[in-house]
Structure formats: C-alpha cells, structure tokens
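User: tokens in, sequence out, please.
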C-alpha cells in the first residue's frame, strides 16, 4: 500500500475498526506485525483510571492480552513507564540497558520474562504528546518473531521518521472517532436523551421533544449513567462526549 493511499484511507476512515485494520497492515510492511495502542483520559498521579474506560486497540493474541492487559502486567511494563514520562519514539534496546545496569524492579523483570515467553522481544514504543494533564496515549510496535532489536533498529534508522508520523496521525484520528468500551455502549434513545441534556434542555423539554413521558426520559438517563459507570447526568454527558458517542452520524 502506497503512503498516499494509506494516508487517504486514514483521513477518510469513519470507524476505528477500519482505521486500525489499515494501520496494522501498513506497520507490517516495516516489520511490526503486532501492535498495542492505549489511550486514557482519566490519568492521575497514582492511576491510569479504570481500565474499562481505556481505548485499547491490538492485534496481539488473546493468550497475550489476557495476561498483559487483563491481569494488569501493563502497569509494571518498563516501556509503559517510559511512555508515561516521555514523548516521542524509543527503541526497546532500553530494556537490555536496564537489565545490564540492574535497574529493573522485580515486577518489571516478570513482565520482561512473560514477553520473552510470548515472543515480544524487539520493537519500538511511541508516546504521543498529551492533550491534557489527565490524558495519555502510546503505542507499542512489536517486531516480527525472530527479528533482533538490531535489525529493527536498522529499519527505524531508514524509516523511523515516517513511522512516527504515521502513528501520530492515526492517534489524532482515533481521538475523533466514536469508541465504545466493553459494557459502555449506549442505546440510541439513551444517546439522544444525553444529547438534549448537552443542549441545555430540561427533562420536561426532552420529554416533549422525544415524544415520551418525563418518567421515561429519566429512565433513559438513569440507564445511560449506569452504562457509563457515573453518578450524575453531567458526568454521563462528559464521558459520552469524550468517547465521541454524542451527535454522531449513523453510517
């Protein structure tokens, strides 16, 4: 796929699924056949927020993600720590240097051992510029099985600037597309009710506009709050807006 065709596809993507499929294909051309993208808007000094609210995109196997993500290994991953404290691209040769200088903690060492068992041994991480103090996004690009770090470093020397640019463009595009986390989806009625709240309408106004009773509107708003795991309707509006689930076109 030519770079121009790829970028046009990225620009015109109307779903994260379509965008991600094209990006996975493009990165494979450079030797990165497994990708793991993560983004949170709920970072604090001690937490990355509720994992259920993360945007997670990956083509790693379930055998890998069930442990790395679901069992929380990511929280102790050295390259995740690097991404949280830095911006730009970094070779995974940093891990070899940490081993050599014995600066890995016990949990970090266990993550490295797990990654080696799963063939995740060479690659690059890209940490994106944060758009707020509470947000952070990064992507881990894993080289094909059998490739040494020195080999993928050579690829990066030749193509690293383009790869970094493409990943930054994809990251920015992802932030514009609707994303529904597991167990966080809204029905069309719940979304419509939240949209009217976002427009400043009262419950009585919304009931008239939607042709429903006030009690039914309240039910839709309550279910929306439950789906989004928040306590107030204002929080539901904000979270739905963050996930681009409001005022979207049905395509």
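Assistant: Sequence out:
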């Amino acid at each position: 796929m030519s770079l121009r065709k790829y970028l046009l596809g990225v620009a015109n993507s109307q779903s994260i699924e379509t965008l991600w499929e094209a990006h996975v294909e493009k990165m494979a051309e450079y030797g990165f056949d497994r990708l793991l993208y993560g983004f949170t808007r709920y970072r604090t000094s001690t937490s990355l927020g509720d994992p259920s609210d993360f945007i997670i995109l990956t083509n790693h196997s379930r055998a890998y993600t069930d442990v790395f993500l679901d069992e929380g290994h990511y929280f102790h991953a050295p390259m995740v720590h690097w991404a949280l404290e830095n911006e730009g691209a970094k070779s995974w040769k940093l891990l070899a240097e940490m081993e050599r200088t014995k600066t890995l903690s016990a949990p970090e060492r266990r993550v490295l051992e797990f990654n080696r068992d799963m063939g995740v041994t060479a690659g690059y991480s890209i940490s994106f510029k944060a758009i707020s103090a509470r947000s952070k996004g990064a992507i881990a690009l894993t080289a094909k099985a059998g490739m040494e770090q020195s080999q993928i470093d050579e690829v990066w020397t030749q193509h690293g600037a383009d790869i970094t640019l493409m990943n930054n463009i994809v990251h920015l595009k992802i932030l514009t597309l609707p994303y529904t986390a597991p167990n966080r989806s809204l029905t069309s009625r719940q979304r419509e009710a939240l949209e009217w709240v976002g427009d400043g309408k009262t419950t009585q106004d919304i009931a008239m506009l939607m042709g429903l009773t006030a009690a039914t509107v309240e039910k839709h708003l309550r279910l929306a709050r439950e789906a989004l795991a928040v306590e107030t309707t204002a929080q539901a509006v904000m979270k739905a807006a963050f996930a681009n689930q409001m005022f979207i076109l049905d395509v």
